[in-house]
Model the fold of this input.
Amino acid sequence: MTTTGFADRLRLSRRETLRALGGAAAGLSFMRMAGATASAADRVAAVDWEQIPSQFLMDPELAYLNTGSLGASPLAALEAARAAAQQIEQNPVAQGFGPVLADAEKTRQVFADLLGCKLEEVCVTGNTSDGMNLVAEGLNLQPGDHVVTTNHEHAGGRRCWEFLAKRRGVILDFADIGSPPASEDEVVDRVASAITPKTRVISVSQVTFSSGVQLPIARLSELAHRSGCLLCVDGAQAAGALPVNVAELGCDTYATSGHKWLLGAKGTGLLYVSERVKDRVAPMRLDDGYGVYTAIGGTNDMVGIIGLAAAVEWAGTLGHAAVFERIMRSREELYAALAVQPGVKINSPPSGSSMASHLVCFTIEDHDKLGKVNEQFAKDKIVVKTVHHGGIDFRVGCHVYNRPEDISRFAASLKAAMT
Ligand SMILES: Cc1ncc(COP(=O)(O)O)c(C=O)c1O
Done:
């Protein structure tokens, strides 16, 4: 029976990663670059990006541009999860309530480090929606209390408030923001004008799912706190793709998914609740604390949680800054390709804007061409998200497993459909 613990499995993953990055030479150069003096650009240059796709099971024929719906896990994460599953299955109670549970508990420190919070402030969930639901349920809002959100929210961050509106007489107010908004000021002003003396919560995405707008969360936190409200953030489209530090963002709660940009197991998520507001956000499931197993919370998906932590650690071996930089460079290429395509309206902020994210969303101006575009993407094996929200048609974004040719194939496919 293997008794390899979480840390050992991660050490193994790191060795495997470095091997796949091109052997000892690449490993040593990466280690040197990982020193405090390396800039993000140095870190990007230190990674052999061409080797990265070989660390995933992704079908090489696909140009997979829909990590925003589900990401792929690196082999290192799959292996860590497989090892944990094997360990449990050999003696479920002894292992699953013993060393494997202890390993899963340790992962919370990985997640706390990732989000920039304390261990006691982060718990594992099943997904972003689950985290948002826990927050909404735990707030104990009363009939007549108001919640402000935007017209860009995904159901996973919005349905919880709609539930409270339907069942408990809570009133939901929408701030209409443009696709894309003209400026951060526009966003802050529109949210501010939706606030009433009875507003208790402002709930927004860090990155909007349909328009790829990075909302000014730190400014919205200030606004919320000035107005006596909590700021609850849906981070499904952010964590893993861009830097997230909840202390710097100043938000009160932050929910995200493990299975998108964090490249983790499907059906995993994270929830941060600031210790400042734990007395105000108190869902039943967290009444015995934020551990992976608690009496009121019961048994969780330890295998998935261990896999998610291994995926986060794997990205850390490349350098999170390098990963973010690489993702944003790909976004610039996606944006540039769309900007020169006649008949396309881009709904996301331009590259270089403080509101630009890794996601680029767009609309086909002549909707008669939409069927042809969809057919062409399918024929050319280009995987995009069809949005169906706010009149926006498609969303694309790259992660580390995307190759430069994925972007050129996407652009060529779109061009073929549009001409
Ligand atoms: C902004 C946003 N919030 C929430 C969700 C729901 O995510 P999950 O299925 O992990 O709950 C998504 C999914 O795409 C999303 O884009």
